[in-house]
Specification:
The complex is a heterodimer of chains A (about 250) and B (about 270).
Chain A: E1 9-18, E2 21-31, E3 36-40, H1 47-55, E4 62-67, E5 70-71, H2 77-84, E6 87-90, H3 102-113, H4 119-132, H5 148-160, E7 166-170, H6 178-195, E8 198-203, H7 206-212, E9 215-220, E10 223-228, H8 230-234, H9 239-245
Parallel strand pairs in A: 3-8, 3-9, 6-7, 7-8
Antiparallel strand pairs in A: 1-2, 1-4, 4-5, 9-10
Chain B: H1 19-41, H2 49-61, H3 64-88, H4 95-133, H5 136-142, H6 147-185, H7 190-200, H8 203-229, H9 234-266
Helix pairs in contact in B: 2-6, 3-4, 3-6, 4-6, 4-7, 4-8, 4-9, 6-8, 8-9
The chains are: A alpha/beta (about 250), B mainly alpha (about 270).
């Protein structure tokens, strides 16, 4: 693990427990500019807890999370709000505001963080984000009128609205059919290239891992078990690594 | 002593409160803290005015028909039911005064608040509860928007201002219902009826009624939002939140009413 302070995001010795359930035990990882890192682990291994600690939704028992030079647990709530506007977050459940149309969902972050924008400028950004996810025709739809894959794309478009430097993806392909899952994985890569975003992708979908990862961190028993490229890990003889990488594509 | 519902007695010198009472005190503390945060977050510069207008419309305008019909029926029924007792004492002419005072001082504010607790409180509890379990509140937070400011402050402010307005409108409709009730038994002109009402009904009757309505509105909004924000256990939890928002806000409405009656008595506003 590099100890450099140049990482755009760095997690160091993070521990969190829920009662007697020790979810993360001195977990460490880092993310560099323009990099896609997949955190791979079994269901219930603490992957989602990790990114909720990174974004400040959960408070860790100990350890440090530094995002763009800011220690998340040490900054004020106003500073945290500002920091969060530089981070996009794609929820596993999409978490679209169900009483708002797609347009209103996408405008929501703009109305709070880009107050100086005119209505026409906001509209242009919304249309651009919808074009990025190839769903411009859904602008006046309600979330309940969208399919699972469309909801995921709209949620991704909303995460992109403030042009974040970091995007956190929580199980982006879970619950989707293989074709849509592949499209979402391709979209993640396209966004990385187009906007030079840095991403942490939480997943146990090996097709998504292979398609999106520049580097993989394997989370086992609350710790960073090992890390490396998909090609490197695919050749590992470690039983725990093989359990993931020997799965059929 | 059951160890499930009561904390065990560790030793003779270290008695513990029953778990249910501990839970009640803890919830009361949480609710008080949650409600107090409203005053910290209530800043005009950070107010979500559009959302407040939207909530005020939903809470005020959409509850108005129900409150109006209930107010009309209350005025009519109270008058019809009071008439025989008044007639037995030969005090029929006092009917408008007596009915108007009881309507304005007690019946209309409390019944309106209970209707609002049922309609608005459960609605807020279910809506925010649903947003909580589907991570919409978390999504708002990670987008750098303070969900308390956007969701809670706007709703509590809307209920605090709309419930008194509904009470005033319901008062007027209830008094009109009472006028029809009086005319079912006697022949009284509207001008004589209003004259009789305002002979007895004074500022000291209206002020406590309106004042406590603000507190009713605040309590309904705060309890609904609190219950929504602490929702757990998925869709089942949403139902529990909606239900407990009604139960708790109803209880708090009666508690405030009791307190208001005592304070009115102490300060001789009778």
């Amino acid at each position: 693990m590099s100890g450099s302070s140049e990482h755009i995001l760095e997690v160091r010795d993070l521990s969190i427990s829920f009662g007697s359930n020790h979810v993360l035990r001195k977990f460490s990882m880092f993310l560099d500019e323009g990099e896609n890192v997949v955190v791979l682990g079994k269901s219930g291994s603490g992957k989602s807890v990790l990114i909720k600690c990174i974004i400040g939704l959960l408070e860790a028992d100990s350890g440090s999370v530094r995002v763009m030079g800011n220690e998340v647990s040490a900054i004020t709530s106003r500073e945290l709000d500002k920091l969060r506007s530089s981070i996009g977050f794609l929820f596993q459940s999409n978490a679209l505001y169900d009483s708002m149309t797609v347009r209103e969902n996408l405008e929501f972050p703009l109305r709070r963080h880009r107050r100086q924008l005119s209505k026409a400028e906001r509209e242009a950004l919304v249309i651009q984000a919808l074009n990025d996810v190839a769903l411009p025709h859904t602008i006046d739809y309600l979330p309940e009128e969208l399919s699972g894959g469309m909801k995921k794309r709209i949620a991704l478009a909303r995460a992109l609205m403030l042009k974040p430097r970091i995007i956190l993806y929580d199980e982006p392909t879970t619950g989707l059919d293989p074709i849509t899952a592949r499209e979402i994985s391709a979209l993640i890569v396209r966004i990385q290239k187009r906007y030079n975003t840095s991403s942490i992708i939480i997943s146990h979908d090996m097709n998504c891992v292979r398609a999106t990862a520049n580097r993989v961190v394997l989370l086992i028993d609350g710790k960073s078990y090992c890390e490396g490229s998909t090609a490197g890990l695919s050749e590992s003889n470690d039983e725990n690594v093989k359990a993931f990488f020997d799965l059929p594509q | 002593m059951s160890t499930n519902s009561f904390a065990s007695v560790q030793n003779e010198n270290n008695l513990k409160l029953p778990v249910t009472i501990q839970a009640f005190i803890a919830e009361a503390g949480d609710l008080a803290y949650f409600s107090a945060r409203f005053f910290r977050e209530l800043r005009p510069s950070q107010m979500e005015w559009a959302e407040w207008m939207n909530q005020s419309f939903r809470i005020g305008n959409l509850t108005l028909p129900l409150v109006a019909i209930t107010g009309f029926i209350m005025g009519l029924v109270i008058t019809i039911q009071s008439y025989p007792s008044m007639a037995a004492f030969g005090a029929e002419s006092w009917l408008p005064s007596v009915v108007s005072v009881s309507l304005v001082r007690e019946i209309v504010p409390v019944i309106t608040a209970l209707i609002c607790a049922g309609k608005i409180g459960s609605g807020i509890g279910a809506e925010l509860g649903s947003m909580k379990v589907t991570e919409q509140i978390d999504a708002m937070e990670v987008s750098g928007t303070n969900p308390y400011n956007y969701l809670v402050v706007t709703r509590i402010l809307a209920t605090t201002l709309m419930v008194p307005m509904l009470v005033v409108i319901s008062d007027a409709i209830a008094l009109y219902g009472a006028f029809l009730g009086v005319n079912m038994k006697q022949d009284v002109s509207f001008s004589l009826y209003t004259h009789q009402i305002f002979q007895k009904l004074t500022f000291n009757d209206v002020l406590p009624s309106i004042t406590k309505s603000f507190f009713f509105g605040f309590a309904i909004g705060a309890v609904g939002c609190y219950k929504g924000f602490v929702t757990r256990n998925g869709t089942q939890g949403v139902g529990v939140s909606a239900n407990s928002a009604v139960v708790l806000s109803t209880f708090v409405v009666f508690l405030i009413d009791l307190l208001a009656a005592q304070l009115s008595d102490i300060f001789s506003i009778t």
